[in-house]
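Supplementary Text 2. Reproducibility record for the structural model of the 412-residue chain.

All settings were left at their defaults, and a single model was retained for analysis rather than an ensemble. We include the record here because the model underlies the residue-level annotations in Supplementary Table 4.
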Amino acid sequence: MYRFDNIQAGNSALYVDATGFRRFQLTSFYLGVDRMNEIDARLELGTSNESVMVTAGAPSQVETQDAEVSSIRNYAEGEAPEAEAKGLGDNFEYQLKQRITIGKNQSALVPILQSRIDAEKVTLWAAGSNDVLRALWIKNTSGLTLDGGSFNLIDANAFAGEGMLETIHPDERRLISYAADPAVHIADRALEEQKPVSRVRMTKGILIATHELRSSHKYVIRNADAAARVVVVEYPVRSDWKLIDTLKPDETTTNFYRFRVPVEAGKSSEILVEEYNPQDTQYQLASLEDAQVKQLSLLVADNRITPALRDAMQRVLQKKNDIALLEAQSSERERQMGAIEKDQARLRENMKTLKGSAEERALIQRYTRELDSQEDKLADLGKQKQDLDSRQEQAQTELETMVERIVLDERF
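Retained model, structure tokens:
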């Protein structure tokens, strides 16, 4: 029968020795507060006094294969490290500072690292997730690489949770979660909208108008616990989206922005995360289509734009309207000419059918006078169309010269 009192909580090992028997050993079992472990030790007969000296290094230094070494990684606060880390290319190894004696058919718990590291207890929530987690925001201040694996967390001498840890290099920060936090509740109020044009650039005959898509999320965080919380909100980094200039995250990674939000006990706090996605629309000023002219006309009517931009846009649109008017007049002349030519074809067809009729001479004289009149009108319309086409071509050249000379970059 045996009993041990006032044992420190944590991973422990039990060894029982008796002369003439092999050692009983139970390694890496957990001792917790207000928790009893009842262990019956059964010792088998055996006589062996052989021992082995184990030093850090390659396996060839172990003198017998009957010895076994078990190790644990301990990242809690405590004594100075009992091993030194050494880089091996992209990997690393721990080398024990002192020799360890282990009896045959025995094993030992060998602390590799016991070092203080910076850690902050927080509540972690990833935007869009249903899981609110307790977590540690740690920084590896041990000066050594912390190997990956599972970990247990002891808080106020009680088991608080467990999780998985990836390899952490010196001075690297990491958020590691270990349990759920049912006391914290988060609501998301989302809004996405399109803002008016906020920037216009004009150069070399090209106009680029920039407008923004805006996305906002108001996160309302309720803390139902009797203790205050620091909530870390992880917001995803999205391609082509940027945070507004007044919003600064506590930390930015490849995949997340992290915002720290203090929440008092029994109260609520909120954080507004706003992003914008600038989108460009490009116009060839010398060859604007009707729909584009309407869009730019609306922009000129916007009271927010600068006087310099309004003046430049008005000159471009006026010249474009002049060209459109000349084009419409030329098209009308062409339509009239087409109608006359169609009527002439009808008259000539009628003249063919008059052969041998009593009204032949009178009608032919009439049709001939109409054809002569139409020929004069066709000639006049053709001259007008040619003049309009020439003026349209000249106006187009003037527009191209004008837009090539305009250089503006206006924000509003």
